[in-house]
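Working notes for the structural subgroup meeting. M.R. asked for a predicted model of this chain before we commit to crystallization trials. I am recording the input and output together here so anyone reviewing the notebook later can reproduce the run.

Input as submitted:
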Amino acid sequence: MLMHHLTIQQISTAQPAIAQAPGLHVAIISDGNGRWATSRGLPRSAGHRAGAESARRVIQAAPRLGIHTLTLFALSSANWKRPAAEVNAILRLLHEYLFTETTHCIDEGVRLSLIGRRDRLPATLRQAIADSEAATAKGTRLHLRLAVDYSAREAIYHAACRFYKVTELSPESFSNVLAEVHRGGSTEVDLLIRTGGEQRLSDFLLWECAFAEFVFLQKRWPDFTAADLEAAVREFGQRERTRGALPDAIAG
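Returned structure, recorded in token form:
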């Protein structure tokens, strides 16, 4: 099987708007915050704050690009290995986002969910997450999923531990169990974007990315714009997605 991973350059916003059918699931590994800050002589926490502003831009732009589900990788389970001050800064930013943006999410029809472990998060943050999820549960314009203390391997493992109780053994039923583990649901990813120059999944949505298209960007996350998201969606629309079958042009 040939894997086609393409790095793209920013496409001018002067181009026509994308005529994209709704329903895309776009997942983003928002990498490069710390390096962005360090290159400017700033503390790494400043990079994470700038990254939060990038997230706001992307969330606002997503629905008009036909994106129905947007999953952002906010904190990996592996990130606990980083200095406590940096991890705490990320968690504070998340708490701040929930506090300031939940009402805006309700107004904009955005449903917010968190996927990942919650037991290692501060109790006040766990409560804020639960409150925001409940308050935005009726949103239908965009499902925003934040992956926090998230490990795809761990999620798959816990789903497998539950799966033996399921009477219908099928990939679909396993996906349903995985969705329960995630709490925020589990749907196949159409487009995976990673900023920061690295070209790996880093234990992110391994099951859901089985047939995803990948776009890797050198640009670091704080510099990522709505135009970059549009360019990635446009590139996705030009890909021929065969899912292992022959392309229509050949099969015909």
